[in-house]
């Protein structure tokens, strides 16, 4: 094997190694907590009292908050994302589609702290005013902003899925007297179901893992949320807000790593579902 | 002389251009009800273009232009007022490569009727059974109507596509080399089917397989370089062609 | 070519417009709001009184250091792995595992990268809270971007010249991410309102996104125009590279379509 090839092979394995290391370190740093406090109530309870005696660590409320915010983002984002992808793949001339695609690519880079800032200054007051809430810093506001942030992922992957549908299907549909919309809606979109599903899962993974935006506008309340319009603290915000204050190797510190491990496992599972669709398709 | 009501399609001096390319050159011919008309010719002779112009499947090609009169089912199909959607319901099409939708067998056949607003399950059940029976597929699939159309063999898929086209009761069925992707046994089934289908409608088939044209068709048109060289009763074309080029082609001395 | 649209298709196009509108409006709004706060002093002087006065030079410089450090660390591994996947990876289980790892690495939440970087770089390897630790953490985060961009552009036979497009795109995207990420640097060395510029890779540092975050959430006395100005400068830096990446790729794509 020439040395260049050996070098790039090494680089390839490095990617594998880094992914594995992330998992290994999370497990290692979680272990002291899991050994001492590991129980089901860690997932189901909603009391998080890191400095009481004895301390209590339960992440149920944070998990539910993550779920609510992700759900809001997906429910709002997916219809827009799929319709936008249909426009790009099927309705607009290629020259126009390229412009929109470029806009998505560029705005995909807007930092999440900037979205958080805007959410704080504009979205939260608007939500509070429109819905007559005591505070606009709610799970709903965070989900709303996240729905905008996941759109580039949703649109580009859904568009790819739509474009991958064989043209023969559309042709058969037209030959049966379908118009363009009927062909899109009854044949092309259903045929792209798998790819669009993968796009939704990847977007979901992104929403679950998003940190700064939710840290800044979800409201930060520790208790179990009872409505999507409650202030809440998703799991990413919990870690980001406390990790700097937790004494190293304290139980709180290890509990936060355990929360990180759970987060890693959840996003890993969600992404693996998406990846199995994508990688599986390429293999064919 | 054939009675006018038996003529489903009448082409008069039809020319088709793709931008500057003159693909079909002033073709005049007619297609009769309850007969199979074959269009033969070497690759690039314009067979498919001519066929696809009959239900306006070329419309989306940029720079496509049609001259002359294509009178199909009593109206000029290239008149600006023509409802393309309605036309395609009356002029069905089967493609070279079987292309069932990635849906169930039932949903494939029911696709056309549903487009027209048919929602009644009883009606649809009837249409699906009738169409699959006409396409000689019913007995093979009646127990698995809700299995995917893609799970069928190639020949079955093509018959499913024929059933799908028949489900909207077309008066003309266009077939673009319908058996070229199939094995001989499946091809034989499709040919048998064509002979049954012509009892109800006009069939136009493009084929590169001259034996097939000779076996199934009543009339044969020989196309060369976009020009209609000869159009006559099939037996005449294959036994006593008038044009030397036709003779060369059917005896294998050309492409 | 038909360009007539039915009512449903128009609804579809409307959804597209509603989809691109918020981010475009956001960018425009921030730039407009940022202008009054941007001055020579703001960009080129040190923060005074926790950033309420003075400028944000250390945050700009800190972010540039991070971008430089991240690129330096991510390029060799990212480009190498991209070429490996495009050229040499055999069609076997291990490669599929690598593909899965890549997709999942791209999906790891940024705050988890922070935990990872803290454990390995700050503590285990003893780099402490520093530009080095933060850059290496960001390098792990941007690795999938560089790998993916490289592999798509790498075509057999002549590897390097063709890979170059991907490397440029990937680098620009990685630079943009390194400039914009907050969570990974939160615990790997970012600090607020430092009185001096970083001296080496081992220094603690200010960074634009972290400065914005702390200004917005923890300094009630921070004048709003300073927050907008910080956001504007950050956004300008990031979007320049995103636009660069997009233009570069479109151009190369066009060249290839001879």
Secondary-structure blueprint:
The complex is a heterotrimer of chains A (284), B (255) and C (258).
Chain A: H1 3-37, H2 41-44, E1 48-49, E2 56-57, H3 60-91, H4 94-107, H5 112-131, H6 139-149, H7 151-163, H8 167-175, H9 180-191, H10 193-209, H11 212-217, H12 235-242, H13 251-283
Chain B: E1 7-18, E2 21-32, E3 36-40, H1 47-53, E4 64-72, E5 75-76, H2 84-90, E6 91-94, H3 105-115, H4 121-134, H5 138-141, H6 154-166, E7 172-176, H7 184-197, E8 202-206, H8 210-216, E9 219-224, E10 227-233, H9 234-239, H10 244-250
Parallel strand pairs in B: 3-8, 3-9, 6-7, 7-8
Antiparallel strand pairs in B: 1-2, 1-4, 4-5, 9-10
Chain C: H1 7-34, H2 40-44, E1 47-48, E2 53-54, H3 57-88, H4 93-107, H5 110-124, H6 131-153, H7 159-180, H8 183-186, H9 208-218, H10 224-256
Antiparallel strand pairs in C: 1-2
Concise structural overview:
With 255 residues, chain B is an alpha/beta fold. Chain B has a 6-stranded mixed beta sheet with strand order 6-7-8-3-9-10, with helices on both faces. Chain B starts with 6 loop residues before the first strand and ends in a 5-residue tail after the last helix.
Count of discrete domains of chain B: 1
The profile of the biggest β sheet of chain B is: 6 strands, mixed
The first-to-last residue Cα distance of chain C is 24 Å
Task: Indicate the structural class of chain B.
Answer: alpha/beta
Distance between the termini of chain B: 34 Å
Topology-level CATH name of chain C: MetI-like fold
Query: What structural class results from the helix and strand content of chain C?
Result: mainly alpha
| Mean pLDDT over the residues of chain B | 90
Number of helices of chain B: 10
What fold name stands as the CATH topology of chain B?
A: Rossmann fold
Structural domain count of chain C: 1
Could you tell me which chain pair has the largest interface and how many residues each side has? A-C, 89 and 90 residues
Corresponding CATH architecture of chain B? 3-Layer(aba) Sandwich
Give the mean pLDDT of chain C.
Answer: 89
Quaternary: heterotrimer
Task: Tell me what the structure shows.
The complex is a heterotrimer of chains A (284), B (255) and C (258). By secondary structure, chain A is mostly helical. Chain A has one domain: MetI-like fold (Orthogonal Bundle), CATH 1.10.3720. Chain A is built from 13 helices and two strands, in the order H-H-E-E-H-H-H-H-H-H-H-H-H-H-H. Chain A has a two-stranded antiparallel ribbon with strand order 1-2. The two termini of chain A are 29 Å apart. Chain B has 255 residues and is an alpha/beta fold. The radius of gyration of chain B is 18 Å and the shape is globular. The mean pLDDT of chain B is 90. Chain C is mostly helical. Chain C contains ten helices and two strands, in the order H-H-E-E-H-H-H-H-H-H-H-H. In chain C, helix 3 packs across helix 9, helix 4 packs across helix 6 and helix 5 packs across helix 6. The model of chain C has no long low-confidence stretch (mean pLDDT 89). Classes of the chains: A mainly alpha (284), B alpha/beta (255), C mainly alpha (258). At the A-C interface, helix 1, helix 3, helix 4, helix 5 and helix 9 of A face helix 1, helix 3, helix 4, helix 5 and helix 6 of C.
């Amino acid at each position: 094997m020439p040395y260049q090839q050996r070098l790039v092979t090494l680089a390839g394995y490095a990617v594998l190694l880094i992914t594995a290391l992330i998992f290994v370190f999370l497990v290692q740093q979680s272990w002291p907590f899991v050994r001492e406090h590991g129980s089901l109530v860690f997932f189901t309870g909603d009391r998080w009292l890191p400095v009481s005696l004895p301390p209590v660590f339960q992440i149920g409320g944070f998990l539910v908050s993550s779920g609510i915010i992700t759900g809001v983002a997906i429910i709002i984002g997916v219809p827009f994302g799929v319709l936008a992808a249909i426009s790009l793949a099927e309705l607009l001339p290629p020259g126009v589609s390229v412009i929109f695609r470029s806009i998505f690519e560029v705005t995909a880079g807007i930092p999440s702290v900037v979205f958080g800032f805007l959410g704080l200054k504009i979205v939260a007051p608007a939500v509070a005013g429109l819905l007559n809430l005591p505070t606009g810093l709610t799970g709903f506001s965070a989900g709303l902003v996240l729905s905008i942030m996941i759109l580039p992922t949703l649109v580009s992957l859904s568009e790819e899925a739509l474009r991958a549908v064989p043209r023969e299907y559309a042709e058969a549909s037209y030959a049966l007297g379908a118009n363009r919309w009927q062909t899109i809606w009854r044949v092309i979109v259903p045929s792209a179901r798998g790819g669009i599903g993968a796009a939704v899962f990847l977007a979901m993974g992104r929403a679950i893992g998003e940190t700064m935006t939710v840290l800044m506008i979800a409201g930060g309340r520790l208790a179990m949320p009872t409505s999507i319009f409650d202030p809440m603290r998703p799991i990413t915000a919990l870690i980001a807000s406390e990790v700097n204050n937790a004494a190293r190797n304290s139980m709180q510190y290890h509990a936060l790593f355990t929360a990180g491990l759970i987060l890693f496992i959840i996003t890993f599972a969600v992404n693996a579902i998406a990846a199995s669709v994508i990688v599986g398709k390429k293999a064919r | 002389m054939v009675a006018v009501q038996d003529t489903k399609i009448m082409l008069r001096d039809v020319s088709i251009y793709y931008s500057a390319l003159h693909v079909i050159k002033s073709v005049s011919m007619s297609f009769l009800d309850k007969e199979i008309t074959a269009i033969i010719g070497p690759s690039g002779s314009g067979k498919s273009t001519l066929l696809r112009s009959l239900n306006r499947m070329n419309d989306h090609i940029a720079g496509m232009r049609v001259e002359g009169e294509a009178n199909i089912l009593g109206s000029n199909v290239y008149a600006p007022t023509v409802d393309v959607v309605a036309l395609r319901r009356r002029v069905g099409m089967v493609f070279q490569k079987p292309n069932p939708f990635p849906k169930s067998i039932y949903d494939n056949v029911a696709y056309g009727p549903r487009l027209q607003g048919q929602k009644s399950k009883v009606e649809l059940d009837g249409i699906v059974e009738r169409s699959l029976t006409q396409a000689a597929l019913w007995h093979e699939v009646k127990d698995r109507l809700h299995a995917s159309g893609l799970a069928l063999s190639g020949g079955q898929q093509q018959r499913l596509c024929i059933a799908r086209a028949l489900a909207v009761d077309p008066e003309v069925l266009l077939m673009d080399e319908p058996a070229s992707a199939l094995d001989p046994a499946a091809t034989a089934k499709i040919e048998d089917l064509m002979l049954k289908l012509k009892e109800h409608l006009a069939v136009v088939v493009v084929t590169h397989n001259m034996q097939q044209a000779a076996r199934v068709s009543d009339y044969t048109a020989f196309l060369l370089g976009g020009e209609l060289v000869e159009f006559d009763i099939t037996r005449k074309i294959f036994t006593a062609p008038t044009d030397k080029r036709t003779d060369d082609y059917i005896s294998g001395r050309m492409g | 070519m038909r360009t007539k649209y039915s009512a449903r298709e128009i609804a579809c196009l409307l959804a597209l417009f509603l989809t691109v509108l918020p981010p475009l409006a956001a960018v425009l709004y921030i730039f407009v709001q940022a202008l009054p706060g941007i001055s020579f002093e703001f960009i080129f002087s040190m923060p005074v009184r926790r950033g309420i006065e003075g400028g944000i030079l250390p945050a700009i410089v800190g972010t540039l250091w991070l971008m430089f450090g991240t690129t330096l660390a991510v390029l060799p591994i990212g480009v190498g792995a991209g070429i490996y996947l495009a050229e040499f990876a055999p069609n076997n289980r291990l490669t599929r595992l690598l593909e899965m790892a890549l997709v999942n690495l791209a999906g790891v939440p940024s705050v988890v990268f922070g935990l990872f970087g803290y454990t390995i770089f700050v503590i285990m390897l003893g780099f402490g809270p520093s530009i080095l630790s933060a850059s290496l953490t960001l390098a792990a985060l941007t690795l999938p971007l560089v790998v993916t961009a490289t592999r798509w552009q790498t075509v057999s036979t002549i590897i390097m010249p063709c890979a170059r497009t991907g490397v440029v795109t990937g680098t620009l995207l990685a630079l943009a991410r390194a400039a914009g990420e907050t969570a990974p640097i939160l615990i790997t060395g970012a600090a607020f309102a430092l009185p001096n510029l970083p001296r080496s890779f081992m220094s603690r540092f200010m960074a634009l996104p972290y400065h914005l975050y702390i200004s917005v959430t923890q300094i009630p006395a921070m004048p709003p125009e300073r927050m907008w100005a910080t956001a504007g400068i950050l956004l300008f830096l990031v979007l320049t590279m995103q636009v660069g990446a997009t233009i570069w790729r479109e151009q190369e794509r066009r060249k290839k379509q001879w």
